[in-house]
Each structure stands twice: as structure tokens, then as C-alpha cells.
Amino acid sequence: MNDLIPITIMIADRTYRIRVEPADEEPVRKTVKFINDKVLEFKRTIAGKDMQDYVSMALIWIATQPVDSIATSLMSDEVKEGFERLELLVDKGLAALPEDN
What we know:
The chain is of the alpha+beta class. The protein is 63% helix and 14% strand.
């Protein structure tokens, strides 16, 4: 239990101080981002009274999805970020090449 590290996460404008295994920090942060993205999606598309409504909608949506679907969504974000980093590297590399005349 001594190996746990404290991290602060924010879900729907509320901060929470939690302790996690170092290896679990990145997956926890990705999951928090996924939850916040769903909350924002519901906030943009559905009328609600307050943030609690949107958090509830997001959690109900997440709870009713097949586990594989959520894992794929989390992985898709990771793959998307990888492609964006690769695209930046390619753009930088192409900018450094001399132009053919």
C-alpha cells in the first residue's frame, strides 16, 4: 500500500485527490478524460438542470456499454494521439527538407 501515489483528478469541474499505483496513473487519467468528454457531449446535446444531470447521463451511458466498446474508445484516443504526434514529426521533417527546383 506504500507504493500508491497521490494524484488529483477532475470530473465535471470537481477535483478529487486519489491514490493509485504508479502503473495505473495513465489509465486512470485516460478514463477521467473519457468521462469528461462524455459529460461535455451530453451537455452540448441534451438539456439538463445542472452538471449532476450530465455526470449521471455519462455514467449511465458508460455503464450500459459493452466493456469492449469502451476499451476500443479509450484505445482509439491513444491511437489518434499517436497519429497526431506522427503527423507533427512528418510535417517538421518535410519542412526541413530542401525544395526540389
